[in-house]
Structure formats: structure tokens, C-alpha cells
Amino acid sequence: MTEPGSPDLTAVEHVAVIDIVNELGKIKGIEQFMTCVDVRLQQVLPHGGFICGIADITGKYQRPVRSLFSNLPTKVIEALDPMDEQIERLLVSRWCKSRAPLMIELADDVEAAFGIDLNRRAKAWLDALRAHDYRNAAVHGMADMGDELAAYFCFIRIPARLGKKHSYLLTQLIPHLHAALARAAITLKTDLTLAVRKNEFH
Q1: pTM for the whole thing?
Q2: Cβ contact 174:50 at 8 Å
Q3: What is the DSSP letter of 45?
Q4: Cβ–Cβ < 8 Å for 101, 78
Q5: CB atoms within 10 A of CB 174
Q6: Does residue 109 have a pLDDT over 70?
């Protein structure tokens, strides 16, 4: 049985979403946040990796200022040069234009899809993702009230061709993930690097 207005979402999944939203409302720290993403969200949004963070969206070139990784192989993280954020900037910039979920299939021509020539480091990161079967990315975000900072959330290696169901789930979950991340980030010092399991917030 599919819930009305919920593309391909079953009644069981609909209840799971409500439970996840309730759990996100109780989160106060990064470890709680990541446990919810790594465990609870798998019930409705199975994924093999997760990237989220805070981005400055005030300038012409929107850019990430802090990032959190989960369940990414070391080689993939190493390939993402912190001094070269073309991919993350590209995703944030594209989201800023539409403010709608982005569904990206890495098997497709990413450069053609985004209408941009990727530099050598960005191509190396995409190659590293593909080599580890990180085949896709579902991305969404939410800006603060002043429209100066935005939280962005990227789920990768989703075991299905991305579609309306994934877009709907992001639309429903991201406002609550944004609020939970904002509360959790308050517990961190600005100069703190936190490593929790396979996570890094910097």
C-alpha cells in the first residue's frame, strides 16, 4: 500500500519517516546525529556513504566551510583535496539555483549534465567514487533565515536508480536534518576536528 502523495512510499515507510523525524528532534550532539543517519535513515533511505556540511551562499561562488563525512573509503576522502572544492562548490551552487533536490547518476556524463569542465582533481575524485561503486548522489539543502549559510546533505551509493521517491524523502527529511545538525554543531568548537567512527567534521 502506498501513502497518498508519497511516491512509492509504503505505509510502513511513512511511519518510519515519522519516527525518524521524532528522533531527529531529540538530537543534541554529533554522535547522536551520525547514529541516526547511519542507522535509522537506512530504513527509508538506504545509502553507502554520506556527506553533509555548512556552506557560505552569500558570494558569487558558493563554497563549503565545514564538512562531515561518513562511511567513505580513505582513498575517496584523500582524493577530495580540501584546497580544491570544485565538486562541492558545484553541488552547492546548483542547489542554490533551484533549492530543490538534486539527483545525480555518476554513470552519466557529469560534466555534460552540469555544463562545466571539471579540473583534474575533481575528475580524480569522481573516478575514486566510481571505483568504489559509489554510483549516485542524492543532494538537498536548507538555508538559514538570513540566506547566508546553508546546510547541505549528500547521500551516495543508493541501491536504486534515483527518482521521485528519493526526491520526496529528501524534501520531507532535510528540514529536520538541518535543525538536528545545527543543534549538534553548537557542541563543537570552531577549531575542533572530530573523528567519530568514520566521520570527520572539519
Answers
A1: 0.78
A2: no
A3: S
A4: no
A5: 20
A6: no
